[in-house]
Fold:
Amino acid sequence: MNDVVTDDPPLSSDPAESLCGLFVDLVPVSGASITVFGRPGAHSTICVSDGIAVELDQLQFDLGEGPRFQTARTGRAAISEDVLTGVHPEWPVFGGAAARLGVGSVFSFPIRIGSALLGVADLYRRTTGPLGDDATKRARSIARRVAAPAVARAGRSATSDEPDSRDSPALRREVHQATGMILIQLEVSADEAFDLLRAHAFSQARTVEDVARDVVQRRLDFRDVTS
Structure:
């Protein structure tokens, strides 16, 4: 079945327009975020729609679990129509935390260019229940349409000296830099360096960004952590 939606408004040429706003405006959800993937640790969240979307994004990044990571592994949409009572064994910690934020349901859709999986659109709704067929088709259609501008925005932001903003709050440049420093300090792979960074943050009940900042500012050397 062809699920391309032909009555969506065109993408704005205004670079300030939030790509996340397209999902919120055109799909019956409460909020959205868009994350573009790169090398290990290079998860650039290029837009969020609201404060709860920020918290859900941060939870997934710090925990290393959630519908975003399920979609990244499988290449398919990850959906929980009820995060409190639903069965989601791949992300049990995130599910409980999301419910405590007042989130009823979550929907993550892959963002692709051709066959390449480049990122994920994370949508949430305060109420429980399915999106429905029409809304699901609309979300998939928007995910296709935002793919190129999302990747372009992530690329521009990676080389920009401008600070993070509400529209692109979590580019996580320090995390990327810290991962590289740990890689050199311990002579491990990029995957292992990022896993160590995340594990240390979890053990200290801190965010990954906080620990990364200590590494970048040379207040923390992972040779001392693992010795």
Notes: Residues 1-6, 12-17, 164-169 have pLDDT under 50 and may be disordered. Residues 19-158 form a domain with the Beta-Lactamase fold (CATH 3.30.450.40).
